[in-house]
Automatic annotation (TrEMBL):
Keyword Acetylation: no
EC number of the protein: 3.6.5.2
One Pfam family, short name: Ras
Entry-linked InterPro entries: P-loop_NTPase, Rab, Rab30, Small_GTP-bd, Small_GTPase
Functional note: The small GTPases Rab are key regulators of intracellular membrane trafficking, from the formation of transport vesicles to their fusion with membranes. Rabs cycle between an inactive GDP-bound form and an active GTP-bound form that is able to recruit to membranes different sets of downstream effectors directly responsible for vesicle formation, movement, tethering and fusion. RAB30 is required for maintaining the structural integrity of the Golgi apparatus, possibly by mediating interactions with cytoplasmic scaffolding proteins.
Subcellular location: Autolysosome membrane; Cytoplasmic vesicle, Autophagosome membrane; Golgi apparatus, cis-Golgi network membrane; Golgi apparatus, trans-Golgi network membrane
Name of this chain's protein: Ras-related protein Rab-30
Family: Belongs to the small GTPase superfamily. Rab family.
Cofactor(s) the record lists: Mg(2+)
One term under GO cellular component: autophagosome membrane
Superkingdom field: Eukaryota
Native species: Papio anubis
GO biological-process terms attached to the record: Golgi organization; lipid homeostasis; Rab protein signal transduction
Length: 193
């Protein structure tokens, strides 16, 4: 009998400028809530959520950068053993989009080559819902604020295609695409494991 309470364990690391909504995305997914007010900072380095995918228990250890969102201040130890990275920007903040190449350089420097870089994977059907299984690495958050959008979907798609990265737009507030983001990624990680 297995000692473990899961079949798979994956470490997922969220990066991107301060204020883009990383903590809110993690809390929406792990706790099902959108933190009120500005103070979304949490006192732990990671949160855990176990999901079931095709009968397999998948434990996701999701690391959130708390106050370290300046380039080169996140050290190798943070990326070490990461199975996947989620690079996030805010669709209402041009600056957070323009910083993405800096983040990519940091990823190249520090992240292990085991980190997922594949763009599209075969379709896999979930027990929960049937969605295309893809590695989600690039996320535009706050789509509920459409009237304040500064970065068009087309620009983001062009950027993600040039970088060979999968792109998804989310709202932590409205819970749009948040489950999809993490479950697609978990599915992709299983198929790579
Ligand atoms: P972090 O610094 O990347 O962790 O960003 P936070 O998660 O702390 O969020 C920064 C601010 O953006 C907070 O005021 C959140 O309430 C807000 N925020 C985060 N996600 C969303 C979203 O999807 N929609 C809207 N409207 N606001 C969001
Ligand atoms: Mg945060």
């Amino acid at each position: 009998m297995s000692m473990e309470d899961y079949d798979f364990l994956f470490k997922i690391v969220l990066i991107g400028n301060a204020g883009v909504g990383k903590t809110c995305l993690v809390r929406r997914f792990t706790q099902g809530l959108f933190p009120p007010g500005q103070g979304a900072t949490i006192g732990v380095d990671f949160m855990i959520k176990t999901v079931e995918i095709n009968g397999e228990k998948v434990k996701l250890q999701i690391w959130d950068t708390a106050g370290q969102e300046r380039f080169r201040s996140i050290t190798q130890s943070y990326y070490r053993s990461a199975n996947a990275l989620i690079l996030t920007y805010d669709i209402t903040c041009e600056e957070s989009f323009r910083c993405l190449p800096e983040w990519l350089r940091e990823i190249e420097q520090y992240a292990s080559n085991k980190v997922i870089t594949v763009l599209v994977a075969p379709e896999v059907s979930f027990d929960i819902t049937s969605i295309t299984c893809i590695s989600c690495r690039f996320v535009g958050n706050k789509i509920d604020l459409a009237e304040r959008r500064e970065v068009s979907q087309q620009r983001a798609e062009e950027f993600s295609e040039a970088q060979d990265m999968y792109y998804l737009e989310t709202s932590a507030k409205e819970s749009d695409n948040v489950e999809k983001l993490f479950l697609d990624l978990a599915c992709r990680l299983i198929s790579e494991a």
